[in-house]
Amino acid sequence: MTTPHDDLLPGTRRALLHRIAVAQSDGRAPSLVATVVRGGKTVWNGARTSVEGHGPDENVQYRIGSITKTFTAVLVLRLRDEGLLDLGDPLEKHVPGTGVGEVTISQLLSHTGGLAAESPAPWWERTPGWLRPELADVLGEQPFRHPVGRRYHYSNPGYTLLGALVEELRGAPWEEVLRREVLEPLGLHRTSARAHAPHAGGWAVHPWADAMMPEPAEDLGRMAPAGQLWSTTGDLARFAVFLAQGDDRVLSAESVREMHVPAAPPEAAELASGFAYGLALQIMHRDGRTLVGHSGSLPGFLAGLVISVEDDVAAVVLSNCTSGPPVFTVAADLVRIVAEAEPRIPEPWRPMTEVDQEALELAGEWHWGTQVFGLRLPADGGLVLGPLSGAGRGARFRANGDGTWTGLDGYYAGELLRPVRRPDGAVSHLDLGSFVFTRQPYDEQAPVPGGVDPGGWRGVQ
Questions:
Q1: Are 90 and 230 in contact (CB under 8 A)?
Q2: Tens-digit pLDDT profile for residues 104-155
């Protein structure tokens, strides 16, 4: 008897429940709700609550804070994919008159624009948005804290500017554009800018007493693109699947993968801890795996969404307290529990449906100087280059349709691989970003830079 692919084993379910139970108890959270996704489907929901006999489920809304930024980034990348902007464009090109127009769209997405972390006082998360009606009120008189493009510095005002960019180019409010272009196509019907019942109330838990006090739930106004949204674990689970796989109705898989790539130089401490930031996605190396996702917080609420693309597992954890359970870490732990207890079963190997003979001619052993590399032709139609032993530069390549190939990752990302042929049509060598790869080490028949010693290989002299 076999276990259905989408069912978790009883031991795994108990381990997941134990983890969130510890998080809710130790973190003294009024409630905590979690969902795990595997293979694009929800496979587990769990909740713990301080209310006897009643627990939230995957349809109860919580505020998700800065996970909102990831939704805003999707809107910006849609504009890029439609050709309405380039990520290298200065903001001034599309939203003039802000006073920070030299900052590029990419820098805003990756928090490298040098902008302040917060808007000027009063504390924007606990005050109504009408106190900051214009972008100038969000940015203040001294919006910069660092030179533009020099370092990662998280900025909520930066995402307010991105929301304004969306509104300028779409000619409609950010909330309306988000609903039309992302929420409705992905079926995220329980995600909204304002709370809709059933929803959790936000609470502050006293640090030295088991007592609570309600937190205000302010409309953030101009700051909405940085942290306004309410959502559920059910909706965020579907959003996690989208962030792992893409959806052509919203954003292609290629553009979604772009969000996963580190775009901001980390601080030394972040580098040591394995943290980086892409385009509105946090990237973390933990327990031997790469995780992407985002955390979020507003007074009264904590949120975490974590994805392991390699394991095909994601987790969402939401709680309704200002501080307490480390929900992003808990979500990462839920991913680890499933990935380790029930490792991903790979798809069966299958041969390619059609063999490109010119590409097949390139497969096999190549030499860069004296280092030996292998070039493989996988079923997806690309090429994979890697050293046969020891460390070395490897990369995947995609075909350009003209006999050349472009690197997708690693040292050769964006570099051109060009097979060079002899007059008889046979491949002489590979030119990869000016490096010459030959079938034999320092092949004297190939144009090896610097030439090949006419005496050839020799022993001790």
A1: no
A2: 999 999 999 999 999 999 998 899 888 899 999 999 989 999 999 889 999 9
